[in-house]
Amino acid sequence: xxxxxxxxxxxxxxxxxxxxxxxxxxxxxxxxxxxxxxxxxxxxxxxxxxxxxxxxxxxxxxxxxxxxxxxxxxxxxxxxxxxxxxxxxxxxxxxxxxxxxxxxxxxxxxxxxxxxxxxxxxxxxxxxxxxxxxxxxxxxxxxxxxxxxxxxxxxxxxxxxxxxxxxxxxxxxxxxxxxxxxxxxxxxxxxxxxxxxxxxxxxxxxxxxxxxxxxxxxxxxxxxxxxxxxxxxxxxxxxxxxxxxxxxxxxxxxxxxxxxxxxxxxxxxxxxxxxxxxxxxxxxx
Length: 285
Hints:
The chain has helices spanning 11-22, 34-38, 60-63, 85-103, 136-154, 177-186, 206-218, 236-247, 273-284; strands at 2-6, 26-31, 47-50, 69-72, 108-114, 123-125, 158-164, 166-168, 191-193, 200-201, 203-205, 224-228, 234-235, 252-254, 268-270. By secondary structure, it is an alpha/beta fold. The protein has one domain (2-167, 203-231, 270-284): 3-Layer(aba) Sandwich (Rossmann fold). Helix 2 links the parallel strand 2 (26-31) and strand 3 (47-50). Helix 7 (206-218) packs across helix 9 (273-284).
């Protein structure tokens, strides 16, 4: 199958492209910055297009020509979750782009959603849990899904909405927890400032997550919302201690230095039953 990947040079995109190629897919990769793309290991194995998918003059029909599925990962402005531009700009621009792709004949669309669509609800979150987004990013993503579900009634297409939880790995935001910890270890710091670390989260390695997204794409009959998560809650402190063990590092954890973030509940994780069923179906195929 031939997949159009937007946001191909981003943290998720660059990994998804690699996995899709390994699975025998053809990839047309789209990103704004050709220089960033030129340094990625897969650049000569894909058809690369330097474009801003939000540009008003974009030729969507040409971009999607011959495409079986769209994997839409592009979403500017992260990790600034509180900014209003998520729904003032990204929401409408994204909808316009995806609608254009569907009207041009793309019959399958995978979009990455976010665990922030669930808002401040605690505990295990399944796809049946009603979304209650509490920040502009979560609100914009959830609203985009609603827009697209309404579009489906008028212009039928398969919509695969994959909610990402906490991803980590090479290429992640340098300000994220594990990236900051790795820097502190590499610099030989004596201590590492963090929260008290008792909050429970759902962490997934980026290569695992990319494998899940590729598997969802290749289950072409699947339509609906799916958590792209581990299903296993782990405390932030345990995650940090695990990384220290992996790296054989001894660094004093300055627990409680930072307050707990207000935009997240203390304990939440994704129920991964639907994902595991889908992966099981893939292995049986």
